[in-house]
Queue: 2 jobs
Job 1
Amino acid sequence: MAKAYERIADELRESIRAGELKPGDRLPSETKLAEDHRRSVPTIRDALRLLQDEGLIEKLHGRGNFVRKARTRVLRTNDRHQWEKDRAREPEAKRLETGSTEHDTGLEVDDLVFHASYRETKADKEIAEALGVPEGSALVERSYRTRYAAETAPFALVTSYLIRALVESNPDLLDAANEPWPGGTQNQLLSVGIELDRIEERVTARPPTPEEAEELELPPGTSVLLLRKTSFDLNDRVVEMSDVTLPGDRTEMLFTTPLERW
Amino acid sequence: MAKAYERIADELRESIRAGELKPGDRLPSETKLAEDHRRSVPTIRDALRLLQDEGLIEKLHGRGNFVRKARTRVLRTNDRHQWEKDRAREPEAKRLETGSTEHDTGLEVDDLVFHASYRETKADKEIAEALGVPEGSALVERSYRTRYAAETAPFALVTSYLIRALVESNPDLLDAANEPWPGGTQNQLLSVGIELDRIEERVTARPPTPEEAEELELPPGTSVLLLRKTSFDLNDRVVEMSDVTLPGDRTEMLFTTPLERW
DNA sequence: GAGTGGTCTAGACCACTGT
DNA sequence: CAGTGGTCTAGACCACTCC
């Protein structure tokens, strides 16, 4: 025999999937649902929590419970890397026009708000391994937040690591005041004589930590995508590594793999 | 003033992050926690549910609440596509040895259990658009489940779509009895004269549906990765499309993007 | 059988939203 | 102000695990 709160959740889920309850619709109040199903309010709330955890409904205090609407997605492609490499050697005037985020989103520079901060650190075990340097090596840790001007939450949390010894010959690379840097990271690396050979991106997913949920303004019932991007130079050395946290309900990543001809 | 259940959750989360409570450790019983914090048991349970939703703890009925251990990850790379393309033209004996899943996981064929089923359908609006065919076109819908022999849950749910008109010249492609097909999908397509030019993969993440959680044996507090793979032939036609659902807590996807030289 | 978490109740009181 | 969901209590009873 199935549990009451599961049966009630199943019923509501079915109504939502069938389209009887459409995105934006208000569900009956919790007391109303309790009467209808002849159950106590806490039992109803158990059912609604299941639906919330699945991302199907949104609970708004004082207003009601609503079927969740899909959020508009931000597309992030891997051809941005080649695009950024090409762009890195353009004259500064050209580089100022657009960054890779604008390339992805098709937006103007003015539609986006950009924030960067730099910090000097030493590599812990995990980061050292990812960068292929000894533990304790001096690093430049750079933190980026980009959001739509019309919104309050950023659409990505980015932490990027550079190996200080590789970039310190250009002091401009140690100062966040030079951000946003026209031409992006690949132009920064070019300024110290580094050319990239390839980029590796590792992707996983999990529920957000409370801190991530807070900063990305994620409602309950959403996931985050974790992207670790590693850049290799022509000598197969790791020259940069970034950890990116993206909201799962509004991010779509597109990777294109070209194949050699037979 | 913070809510009691949040404060209790914060305290426990901190203990876990600090390593005072290690993966596998049992938390104090709910009644014990209630006494310690001078709160009712339901309030403690509210706190523990937060931690469960974050994927930090595992609730085991009759045994206790435990700090969750990380599961071993399955790596899925995008160089599998080129590998599979090369493999598609090898003689059958060679193709029988390993499939792309074994290529990714480094396992033997015997370590994996494979299941396939075919079904003929018509393209609904969404699928038709993805395949670039008219709505209602005849399709071959193929469903795959692969799991470790030692485990009960598959590590991926795959639904693949072929356009019937493109493949029906080889009747073997309409029969699941020929699975696992030596050489995989690219060899199947070769048998009807199709060569692939590139593969596009779109990735998003969200909490699992109850059905996905059931089939993948996902504990609460995990996400799924959704991968839509689209294969294009030399004429830029879509010739195959797959939707893949992967457990977020045990899947890592690796995409390598090579860059052209300056 | 002792100890654990899971389901469910009935209700008090608080906090937020709208009119 | 009425109506909504959010927090919390105190306790009954069930189901599972392990000794």
Job 2
Amino acid sequence: MRSEVAVVPLPPYRLGLGRKRHDQFKDTQFQAQFKSFEALTRRRAIYLVATRPATLGSPHGATHRSLRSSKSHCSENDYEPVPYSVGVVSEEAGEKLWVPDIPVGQKPAYGMMYHSLQQAYEYYKDYAKRAGFEVRLGQQYKSNKNKHDNLNIKYFVCSKEGTNPAPTKVGAKSKQRKHSSKRTDCKAAFRVKYFEGRGYWCYEFIEGHNHSLVNEEDSVFLVSSRDVSYTQQVFLYQASQVNLGPVKGFNLLRVIYGEYDFIGFYNHFDSVVGCQKFAQRKNDHDSRYTIPDFHTELQIEKEASELYTRSIFFDVQTEIYASVISCMSVSVSDVDSGKKYVIQDTGEDEKLSRRHRIVKGKPLYDVFYEVLCKPSEEFYQCTCKRFESYGLLCRHIFYVIRLSKVKTFPRKYVLRRWSQDSLPPASVIQASGDTPDMILREIFRSVEYCVNRYANEPELLQKFRDHQVQLMAKADADVPIPKKTNKRDRIASILGVSQPEEIVVNIPKQVSTKGSRKRIKSSIERSMNPSGKRRKNCRFCKCSMNDHNQAKCNAVRAQIAAKKASDKAALREMKQRERLAAKKARLAEKNASASAAKKARLAEKNASALAAKKARLDEKNASVGENG
DNA sequence: AGAATCGGGCATTTTCCTAG
DNA sequence: CTAGGAAAATGCCCGATTCT
């Protein structure tokens, strides 16, 4: 039996923690641990939404929550689009105001007292979460008279407070934002004043927002909903200890917790949003809650932003922008009840000119398109057939629409599949009664909930542990000898199936292994890049054709081959030189030995000649002596 | 071989706070 | 109340590594 509950001090997740909360972890003891953990989760950190199981109740506005969420539990057939503008909309002085639909008593009010700034902040945040917006800190004022270093006034504002104007053109290159600002200059605020000795009181509460609020069901997409509960942190941290990265750890959590609906998660990285439903909901949320940056002043662009889902809008926006800068009318002629324009695409639009650099073997700017238009019938047709193949209008048609002085977006050409109000209903996984599986999950969740609650209260945590130990003893008493299930039955119950009487094994379908085959793409397809992503250039040759990487770069290969050849040549040359040198040496040696021998012979000869001469001389002298 | 994941680098936006 | 700045957060790109 365990006798101790270890409370592991955890480093916080980097994301979702503001500067303030980081400060809480300044303890040097954590530093090293924190750093490694932070590095681990830095890029791919996961946002999990701590959900409170309905059975356990939520501390605030439980009825409100359950009323709302009951809406979602309808079958797919009788799906009704959830009205998005949560709250009461009032129009004053030509300005729309969204006022959260929260009953009195559950929202801030003039004169409310709070012990501390933190409490006031938490209260407002909680209200904001129910109301469907986000909060951040606002201005603050400190009085010199204040002895206790307390702030005199603190504002808490809607996260859409203020403005963040798009950067103006810098030099020749216009700096275009990739992401639009979320600020709408919302005036909603909650302001508190210091009250000597008692805390802070609310002296102003501006309830109305100048933007729509987020529906309860989409509140998971709010930053304030991003949180990783204590036990989840422990889990992810321990997973990291055994070399299980955050993504895998998260996937594991997902499995343990059941479905997305139970765990509720939100992630910034598309790659991890594997669940189609969530990807769609996120797109839907973005479409409704944020306003994109417009590239033109055209009414048609604004309308498009309201008609299309966000990701599709960006595509349409590109075309509208291109219609302004890269299309030219070459000729117009009357046809039947309409007009026929010949449009030249100059390919000014850089992105697309790179993408469609060559169309049917011709450079883009050489391509002319014919647009048939009957504005009265809202009829447009272009020979580029973009609408027919993609379901989205082309730049040439947008150009003609502008020429025809049509201001509204032709609704006829907004296909239902791209439009905002055609997003599919969220398929809700219904709890299927009290199956053992559900009961187990419920138990795990309730225990986890308690642990999260008590995480920072060691005494209460200990009490909870003791209580659990008692329950264990009770379980022992209740069931002294647990029934043994046979392995087969256990597996069957886990899998939720029973073993069939007769086993029929079908011949499995032949499925090719992942990545074992590669479809050969045509040259046109290769140059198209349908994903829209900017392709990587080869690092080596910087080739903009983007059809290869450094590993497959012909230039690299050529360089390597050239180097090999030159190396080989150098080697050959060196060997040749060596051979020559050796030959020379041999020759020199031979010569030397020959000359030495010759010299020796000569010397010998000389010596013998000399000796002979001397002998002859001696002989002569001797004979002269004898004779004289 | 291709998919999935990781992680450094960088640009940009948001948050929080202060000076004037 | 506004403007502006520092720091934190966010998100994309892209090459490298690991997994399947």
